[in-house]
Amino acid sequence: xxxxxxxxxxxxxxxxxxxxxxxxxxxxxxxxxxxxxxxxxxxxxxxxxxxxxxxxxxxxxxxxxxxxxxxxxxxxxxxxxxxxxxxxxxxxxxxxxxxxxxxxxxxxxxxxxxxxxxxxxxxxxxxxx
Length: 129
Fold this sequence. Notes:
- The structure is a single chain.
- By secondary structure, this protein is of the alpha+beta class.
- Helix content is 26%, strand content 26%.
- It has helices spanning 3-15, 48-51, 64-69, 114-123; strands at residues 18-20, 26-28, 44-47, 53-57, 75-77, 85-91, 99-104, 127-128.
- The chain has a six-stranded antiparallel beta sheet with strand order 5-3-4-7-6-8.
- β1 and β2 (26-28) form a beta hairpin.
């Protein structure tokens, strides 16, 4: 495909609120609670019991099969639960590679030590949500 044709296609898709997930297969963007245009959630790897974490693979580049193969010691589920949630670290927010790591109250994290997780998130270039 010629570069100028690709540029026109990408511009048209971005202007209409679509993101390409494959050749000629646009998918509408979902809005999150803040209306920022990030996608909500998509398969998640729950490692709450083992590490106090659950990671939502939000970006459109992730498939459930990829999440399953990279979820060692965890459970693949549709999304991360809200119960006992202390904070969320968003990495590459708004891109096809967006992930959101959820931190949960329990033996690994508490309200008194969650600041360390927030600091590490920010050091990685993430957004504490």
